Amino acid sequence: MSDLLAALESLRERLKEIPQADERRLQEIKTEILGRKAGALTDILKGLPALDPENRRTIGGAANVLKRDLERAIDEREQAIKHSATGLGAGVDLTMPGRRQWRGGLHIVTQIVDEICDVFKELGFTRVVGPEAETERYNFYALNFPKDHPALDAQDSFYLGGDVLMRTHTSPVQIRTLEAYPPPIRIVVPGRCYRRDPFDASHSPVFEQIEGFAIDEGITFVDFKATLATFARRIFSPTTKVRFRPSFFPFTEPSAEMDVQCQICGGSGCAACKGTGWMEILGSGMVHPAVLENCKVDSEKYTGFAWGMGPERIAMLRHGIPDIRLFFDSDVRFLDQFA
Fold first, then answer.
1. Crossing angle (nearest 10°) for helices 108-122 and 221-235
2. Fewest 10 Å CB contacts: which of 143, 146, 234, 256?
3. Is the preceding omega at residue 254 within 30 degrees of 0, hence cis?
4. pTM of this prediction?
């Protein structure tokens, strides 16, 4: 009996190895002690029938207690190894459904830019880009801005030094294209622009703009209106009403601002359209002859039209977004609606 008690005590000492054992060593200990065929504790339990009743109770009770302690320690170690392998801590319920991970996607303004460019691509326009840092000539003078125009002041534009500034519109690409290629030309120009505007619900100092223009022989105001009306009905709906109001821009003559029927109230009048039933979406007009002459294009032979629009404004109109600052907040809850 004393030999069996000593053997049990020796096996109990093995409990100390279990908390530090790795997965392989843990299985070895489990087999050595609790294995059904050759486990040390199993051999002791198999020899109990040969003992007298009193010793059988003593040895059997001690063996059963030791077996429970070993099984509990081995099970705890197995769970700890499993959690460590999966990188999960205690208290993680693997049966709970997982949270849907945000999949990401194109920003809503980028989507609108691509969609607008695709519409004009179907109308025969080519998508081009230009530099964001421009000289005063490309940004102003070649576009028929007078040298005393307020837009040239430092409080309106971001100057980098000398006559170099961050472009205030994408119109300089018109000049670069006219200087590089002979008419006929039809281009659409998306890009980022910079102005010293306040950052509020309807303005941003950094914003996207899409410029476009067409130059060819025989282009008239009818072509101009038909092209932009087709664009508006493709972007909003086939029944969208449009109107053109007289305006002024240095680089177009005549000039017009284009309004679309309010997409929120359907033209009945609401707070968004200030009760008018209309919302402005772009400025436009026939290309000023002086712009063509500045690029050495014969203004007697060629005519054309140009426009500029803000895709943020288009996105706000289409989706009923009340504040332009939402586009810059990087709030996943907002962006996920358009992913």
1. 140
2. 146
3. yes
4. 0.67
